[in-house]
Amino acid sequence: MATTVYYCASSLDGYIAEDDDSLDWLLNYQGTFEPETADPSPMDEGGAYEGFYESVRALVAGSATYEWILDHLDVAGGGEWPYRGKPCWVLRSRDLRLPEGEGVDVRIADAPVGELYSEMAAAAGDGVLWVVGGGGVASQFADEGRLDEVQVTVVPVVLGAGKKLFERRLPSGSMQLTGTRTFKNGMVELRYEI
Ligand SMILES: NC(=O)c1ccc[n+]([C@@H]2O[C@H](COP(=O)([O-])OP(=O)(O)OC[C@H]3O[C@@H](n4cnc5c(N)ncnc54)[C@H](OP(=O)(O)O)[C@@H]3O)[C@@H](O)[C@H]2O)c1
Predict the structure, then answer these.
(1) Which residues partner with 131 through β-bridges?
(2) Each residue of 116-151: pLDDT tens digit?
(3) Which terminus of the chain is more solvent-facing, meaning fewer CB atoms within 10 Å of its CB: N or C?
């Protein structure tokens, strides 16, 4: 059975992007935390991301997140689509560009999460269905009772405004902390089961 995981990075005050979709606060973040027990940065080799990504069998993202990826990696100009070999559902109600190339499997959809879930879960098999974001998409999964885990890497930056980690209150209310990881750059990963 698939596990649906919302895996993302958030500012200390609960934003995943600035209002203009900038992620400079995350991509340019440099901090330090030196104890021996600290792990390499989440994006470094051997960091948390690679381990998580190996478990991912299917992905789902909102259109703003999808377009940020296309633009940031310059996919139209020859940059590589980062999720080759894994089906990625993109939720949208308007026309979107589609990347090309071997192994690219982007499935554009305009429907409630509840209607798409079985198809996405079947594609993920017994692996992870990664809810890439944003907060509105994560809230739709939570509303449907289809969000199993939240893995958020907290970046010690306060933005004051931006795109929220979740758009709405979680209907189930309670979460169980299942693990934490502290990185050498001062970020902290929190893992919760819903
Ligand atoms: N820090 C992180 O780890 C992290 C993770 C993910 C994303 N991000 C960033 O956070 C920002 C996210 O922005 P966001 O929260 O505004 O947007 P988003 O969730 O990426 O996209 C929202 C849009 O998706 C479409 N959509 C969502 N659900 C739908 C459904 N069920 N059916 C049809 N269309 C649906 C709608 O677009 P239309 O109707 O306009 O098509 C909606 O306006 C982006 O800048 C992204 O790069 C950061």
Answers:
(1) 6, 60
(2) 999 999 999 999 999 999 999 999 999 999 999 999
(3) N
